[in-house]
Amino acid sequence: MVDYSSSSSSSVQLSPPQHQVFLNFRGKQLRNGFVSHLEKALRRDGINVFIDRNETKGRDLSNLFSRIQESRIALAIFSSMYTESYWCLDELVKIKDCVDLGTLVVIPIFYMVDTDDVKNLKGAFGYTFWKLAKTCNGEKLDKWKQALKDVPKKLGFTLSEMSDEGESINQIVGEVIKVLSSDVMPDLEREIPIDDPFPTGEQVPEAAPDSPPPLFGIETRLKQLEEKLDFECKDTLTIGVVGMPGIGKTTLTSMLYEKWQHDFLRCVFLHDVRKMWKDCMMDRSIFIEELLKDDNVNQEVADFSPESLKALLLSKKSLVVLDNVSDKKQIEVLLGESDWIKRGSRIFITTSDRSVIEGMVDDTYEVLRLTGRDSFEYFSYFAFSGKLCPPVRTFMNLSRLFADYAKGNPLALKILGKELNGKDKTHWEEKLSKLMQSPNKTIQDVLRVSYDELGLSHKDVFLDVACFFRSGDEYYVRCLVESCDTEAIDTVSEIKDLASKFLINISGGRVEMHDLLYTFGKELGSQGSRRLWNHKAVVGALKNRVGAVRGIFLDMSELKKKLPLDRSTFIKMRNLRYLKFYSSRCDRECEADSKLNFPEGLEFPLDEIRYLYWLKFPLMKLPKDFNPKNLTDFNLPYSEIEELWEGAKDTQKLKWVDLSHSRKLCNLSGLLNAESLQRLNLEGCTSLEELPREMKRMKSLIFLNMRGCTSLRVLPRMNLISLKTLILTNCSSIQKFQVISDNLETLHLDGTAIGKLPTDMVKLQKLIVLNLKDCKMLGAVPEFLGKLKALQELVLSGCSKLKTFSVPIETMKCLQILLLDGTALKEMPKLLRFNSSRVEDLPELRRGINGLSSLRRLCLSRNNMISNLQIDINQLYHLKWLDLKYCKNLTSIPLLPPNLEILDAHGCEKLKTVASPMALLKLMEQVQSKFIFTNCNNLEQVAKNSITSYAQRKSQLDARRCYKEGGVSEALFIACFPGSDVPSWFNYQTFGSALRLKLPPHWCDNRLSTIALCAVVTFPDTQDEINRFSIECTCEFKNELGTCIRFSCTLGGSWIESRKIDSDHVFIGYTSSSHITKHLEGSLKLKEHDKCVPTEASIEFEVIDGAGEIVNCGLSLVYEEPNHVVVERNCKGASSRRDMSVGESILSIAAGYLSNVLRFLWLGVVFFMVYGFSKIFVK
């Protein structure tokens, strides 16, 4: 029988998971739209969903990682905003780790983002990623990149603008149900269902009595370890084999030894070196005798001289396994100087402590946990007497839960399986319940060996992590639990030592703990009264004023009534390190009522306190005897404090402070000595009028949040050299901004009363985000903003007095987002800094033609002054999104940039004309495009023709790529505008919402490029504003051979803000026909049928989001015709040829270039005239 003897890390599944599905996504718009619908659909089918708003309030955000571990499935929803978030990427790393460890299934969903952009970090998705990457270290970045490489490779779903979200959600829910109902447990490479691997009627496999048992995935590990043998290397190699207790190190090396011992003349497998080591002594002669056992020597080892023994040993190559080594000295005693080992020998050392082999091995192999299916089968093998699956279906789910609990640890699986063998269902259920409190005794004994070898400080840190900080940022946890200063160089780190002993795991810069170790540690920690988290035990300790307490965590929502306490409650708890009073129901004032009452005041002599979290602290200040000298993380949200404490106290270790929504706080003098402070959250402190000048000592402060400090009037003069993020949002009394750090990267001044920006802001050369939204008094944007070379996002939305934007966009080389909606601008921002009438600007103009700006998004909406856009807007080569909503005086739109994906001109009442063509045709990075002209009621018919003409040509170009790259049905282009009729060029049209037609033979040949779909919608007069409107179009094509293909796509979609549509509108969408062509061509070939085969088609339109009635609909098959050409330009101006109309495309593109060509010619003539006159003048 294969016997494993030692696992890796993740989390316990002691009962059916609280959250079966974890949603990983980014963005409020996504949360309120697609994710909201998906969540509801999942819940309707009885599926528990975790979404971050459900996170237990008052707890550290690291709980999200526990939620991932508790889940069966993770839905990773990739969107254009996804890579703006550290948290999303950290979650994704955790998801990947769980998938790799075989505890989680991940299903990627690509929402309005190109899958290729996600996989290769390109386009807008990649751009925001590389922007974020600049702010993190190398190790974290590598983990992000690996997660973004691995997760998108899994089978998933893609939603484009044309996708039917309702149908897509149904498909996603169906896949989730399929995974959950089949109890999928993922393998390392792909998901494998194990709920019923052997359907009814099939015999459950059973190991033959005389045959060796299955290897349960060890073949892969053995192959990986064999690669370490590297026989091409002629030198001696020493290999360390590491892993947590019970993970299978001994089993693996035993199999390798058995397989390869015949290739060496001298072989030794020295079992359990730890047991041979007594009182730091070991008899080496046992090892030497084993090495010489086949040499037929007739004398004792002790009788050999050192020289003769060395010569004898050097005569043959050796294969040596030192099993279960626990101390470096053991290796030194056994191997000595290794000068007796012949070149070409191989030595393997197994250990549960990585530090033991540091500097003593040439390579290391870590044994990872078993995958999901291997765990299940290994457990079943012992639980059901050699069967690989429960013979009775009632044990199937219970078996999965036990396999989940062991999290791939073979020793735990074997012990639990043997213990449950032959027991009834009731016993299984009772055993599972007991495991919630503590691990199996045998497993506990194995883990206890490693724990008992720890020193006292290491034991305390292990138990603190298990009881209070099981999952969290490594630096944060170290600062709280370690005994030494974490900032000192080469200091002892208990956390790193525990990780090297596999008692905790450090992954992605985070501390995690395996479930077996977690329950083991929690049980040890609960013994006595040093660490308390059960509310009954906490209340008892507080009432009885128990001493010698190390940590208290109390969920006040579990208290049924207020608890009055004596002032001397904490008098004996001088060694208390961790104190947290929180509410898991709500961390805000609305429900989070402090249940603790101190009618006679409070004595608080906590000299050792490191972590203090007290929701709604009831006193005006902390007591005089409070000593914060060791305080590291200090949280008093929604408190009644007016000041922290009297006078200045020693706060040298204080790094994190959260006093948010303490509305009476008016004095921060207590923080004057907090020179190590890194984050300070003062959000909602409405009585705070000023910051102390002494804050300039806070040279480590990185983050300062004063959102909603409505009484704050001015910032002191200082330079906080480390400050990167400053939030002054809605500090409505600030009229003048003072630069307090030259190294700011993110600055939020939105909602302040500033009238102008100070000139010294030009120093902010690292500034990436500048938010000035709703600065109602701001009258002008200074030109020095063009000198902020790192600026990527500039928000001026709602600056109602802003009339000019004098900074040429060309000078803002990194600017990606410019929001100018709700301003009083009289004209569109200047794009070029040069004057095209001057000869010396010719090189600048030439450079500008190839794309002068990195701008991705430009918002000019709600402007009543702009009547025309600048003609050179087409030179914003990288522009993806142009927002012109409610520009009520806009009359025309010129030639647009070639990469534009979204144009939203909703409510442009005077808009009449658009350029023809609307933009130069180019193969875009992303296929989908959407041009919205809702409520543009003065749009001329010529303009509507131009919109549909451009959409058709653009779709044909993209359809060719879909065909070549194997794309499936999706909307290539969506357009909508006012109208009551289906355009006349639609071949097939009818009244109502359904179209039935008979297509001619050979209609679906290789000339068919796209299918155009059209619906005319009438909207009710009483409709409310809606934030999305979608039409589902279901198409079915069936020929006389019986071949049928059915697909659907969506016209419409979501908008950034809600709107009301006040007249009939035409919605047109173009979808690729490549999947239809390939399908029907394949069926004809399969049936060897060459004759004419007519086809019947059924097209049905239905409003699925919003209110409206479809009154007309149409379909048109768009074919490529011979001798038709389209010019496609790349970023360098090179062109390639693709089929499209010469008569229309070339002339329209030539018209687009005409003005620029004439400008070039004229400038050239002027240049040579000036040059000639200057020569004559010189002569």
From TrEMBL:
Q: Which GO terms describe its biological process?
A: defense response; signal transduction
Q: Which PROSITE patterns match?
A: TIR
User: What stretches pass through the bilayer?
Assistant: 1160-1178
Q: Write the record's keywords in alphabetical order, separated by commas.
A: Hydrolase, Leucine-rich repeat, Membrane, NAD, Plant defense, Repeat, Transmembrane, Transmembrane helix
Which residues are in the TIR domain?
A: 17-180
The answer to keyword Transmembrane applying to this record is: yes
Q: What is its EC number?
A: 3.2.2.6
| GO MF annotations in UniProt | ADP binding; NAD+ nucleosidase activity, cyclic ADP-ribose generating
Determine the domain of life of the protein's source.
Eukaryota
Annotated Gene3D superfamilies: Helical domain of apoptotic protease-activating factors, P-loop containing nucleotide triphosphate hydrolases, Ribonuclease Inhibitor, Toll/interleukin-1 receptor homology (TIR) domain
Q: Tell me yes or no: is Transmembrane helix among this UniProt entry's keywords.
A: yes
Q: Which reaction does it catalyse?
A: NAD(+) + H2O = ADP-D-ribose + nicotinamide + H(+)
Q: Which InterPro entries match?
A: Apaf_helical, C-JID, Disease_R_plants, Leu-rich_rpt_3, LRR_dom_sf, NB-ARC, P-loop_NTPase, TIR_dom
Annotated PANTHER family: ADP-RIBOSYL CYCLASE_CYCLIC ADP-RIBOSE HYDROLASE-RELATED, LEUCINE-RICH REPEAT-CONTAINING PROTEIN
**What protein does this entry describe?**
ADP-ribosyl cyclase/cyclic ADP-ribose hydrolase
Q: What is this organism's lineage?
A: Eukaryota, Viridiplantae, Streptophyta, Embryophyta, Tracheophyta
